[in-house]
Specification:
It is built from 15 helices and 13 strands. By secondary structure, the chain is α/β, with parallel strands linked by helices. The chain has 2 domains: 210 residues, TIM Barrel, CATH 3.20.20; 93 residues, no CATH class. It has an 8-stranded parallel barrel with strand order 1-2-3-7-8-9-10-11, surrounded by 5 helices. The two termini are 34 Å apart.
């Protein structure tokens, strides 16, 4: 069971950067993501399957979601896209490769995640309506092929709504996917540079067109203000590399906004990252001054302690949002959080 709304932690190569599985669990995180494309490159899905599947390989006994690899291959230079799939160069050894809906599902079936994603065409931003329409057509065509290739009923296959910023295309794509009665639905193409306002506009329009009794997943989002806005629109699941990526560069989240621990003003600061936080870093007595020193000395522990804190911060955020929803005061909670958080950023 996954408590929603939930923020899922990204472990692209089968590991959350700078954190052990036990440290991830300590934050309250319930779901971890891994990447189909990268795991297929190395170590290869066959080896993962031989060693007991992704749960055993990662030593993670909670739910795992694997994305399709679509976003990654569409981000590669010199790829060739056709209705059949995407051709590109292997970034590890330079060999020619192809990722198709069938191949993406085959890899994910072998990896053995609990939730797997359909192979879709991730439309870039900005895009004209013609390009976005072509992406929707191909996404729906590939969805049918993913369903035909999927052979593990214990894995929940989610479809992905595309359509860029065009309401009619989003509506058409959502309607076609809902007709397939899938276990869950994702909204894709909203974390490709469109900004907070357009992200909210697309999500607010699209989410109500997806079943309330099925999980609704906003892919690649994001910042705390994005997450809280989307929860208000009915989104259940989120994922983003921001918590750990920011942590490795010294940026951490607090209830009063983001702070950069590498700034010289924290050199003598004896407070924890966030005095209101109960994560292992803050409750453990590690000070801002100590983390400033660790970053200056390029110590690995800097990334570990900052990552633990940031992941905990996001888990606390969605947990408090869940509590506020149950109590019937989510709007008030969101307003009070943002009033404290945004001025300090």
């Amino acid at each position: 069971m996954i408590h929603t709304p939930a923020f899922m932690i990204v472990g692209t190569h089968g590991a959350v950067k700078a954190m052990t599985p036990e440290q991830v669990r300590s934050t309250g995180a319930e779901v971890v993501l891994a990447n189909t494309y990268h795991l297929a490159l190395r170590p290869g899905e066959s080896l993962v399957a031989k060693l007991g599947g992704l749960h055993a390989f990662m030593r993670w006994d909670g739910p795992i979601l694997t994305d399709s690899g679509g976003f990654q291959v569409f981000s590669l230079p010199k790829k060739e896209i056709s209705d059949h799939g995407v051709s590109f160069r292997n970034e590890v050894n330079g060999s020619s490769m192809e990722l198709t809906p069938e191949r993406s599902i085959e890899i994910q079936n072998e990896l053995g995640a609990d939730i797997i994603m359909a192979f879709d065409e991730c439309t870039p931003y900005p895009a004209d309506e013609k390009l976005a329409r072509s992406g929707v057509r191909r996404t729906l065509h590939w969805m049918d092929r993913c369903l035909a290739a999927h052979h593990r009923s214990e894995q929940a296959l989610f479809g992905i709504v595309q359509g860029s910023v065009f309401r009619g295309l989003r509506s058409d794509c959502a309607k076609s996917l809902v007709a397939l009665d899938l276990p869950g639905y994702a909204i894709g193409g909203v974390s490709v540079g469109e900004g907070h306002d357009l992200l909210c506009e697309v999500t607010q329009y699209t989410a109500p067109r997806l079943p309330e009794h099925k999980p609704r997943y906003l892919m690649g989002v994001g910042l705390p203000e994005d997450v809280l806005a989307a929860i208000g629109f009915g989104i259940d699941l989120f994922d983003c590399v921001i918590p750990t990526r920011y942590a490795r560069s010294g940026t951490v989240f607090t209830v009063r906004g983001k702070i950069r621990l590498t700034h010289r003003r924290f050199r003598r600061d004896g407070y924890p990252i966030d005095p209101s936080c109960s994560c292992l870093s803050c409750a453990g007595g590690f000070t801002r001054a100590y983390l400033h020193h660790l970053f200056a000395a390029n110590e690995v522990l800097s990334a570990i302690l900052a990552s633990i804190h940031n992941v905990h911060f996001y888990q606390r955020l969605v947990r408090e949002a869940r509590d506020a929803i149950v109590a019937g005061n989510f709007v008030q909670f969101r307003q009070e959080f943002l009033a404290s958080y945004l001025p300090g950023s």
